[in-house]
Amino acid sequence: MTEHIFSLVFRTVLMYFSVFIFMRIMGKREIGELSIFDLVISIMIAEIAVMAIDSETPLYDGFAPMITLLVIQIVTAGLSLHYPMVRMWFDGKPSVIIRSGKINRDEMKKQRYNLDDLVTQLRAQKIDNIGDVEFAVLETSGQLSVLPKDNSEKETAEPKYNKRDSTNNKDTKEALAASLASKIKYEALPFSLIMDGRVDDDNLKIIGKTRFWLKNQIQAYGVNDFKDVFYCSIDHKGKIYVNTKEKWL
Fold first, then answer.
1. Using CA atoms, how far apart are residues 147 and 158, in angstroms rounded to an integer?
2. Contact indicator for 96, 107 with CB cutoff of 8 Å
3. Is residue 33 located within the same domain as residue 80?
4. Where is this region: Disordered (predicted)?
5. Beta bridge partners of 241
6. What pLDDT does residue 147 have?
7. Residue 50 in contact with residue 57, Cβ under 8 Å?
């Protein structure tokens, strides 16, 4: 029994330092930002190390495949430095999710990246309104890089009103923003009102508004039906953001 325990302890310590050394050889990139290729290599090395801890398995049965994976990773990383096509094949390429406040719906669908993921990652970077984003790029590691609009140029796009209502629109909009700001309780969070054509009635109740009011808001942006809206939100200042399902350019 003592010999068995000693063998397990020895193998565990040996595998720990072996995996640690392998990861260091593979580079710091493995720790900071894992691409799909990096993730597969890391998981496989970890799984093989666990199996090698078993006292009934010869150590070389564990080290041989681990060294093979290490060589594959080093060779691939070396080729990626010199050949962009190899790098794109293994790591993929970043995806532009937002450009000039417009959501790239097609790219989100392609990457299977939903609106909840987008809003969560924007919120983590203290962005409460998609309209304030100049560019948002989904990196190959799955992280979202966000470039906010310049504060000096950050202005809300004016809705398309009829000319006959232009004199009162500004006052009405300011009054509406003030009333909404007073009703929204959670100032750090934007409220999603429409997601992929579906109205969030719970959030409408929180701000004390109805679907009729919401329809008037989207009509001011030239949209007549909820189904034509990909995403609509309101921030704590009462600023409305509307992104339609029109083809992204």
1. 22
2. yes
3. yes
4. 148-172
5. 233
6. 83
7. no
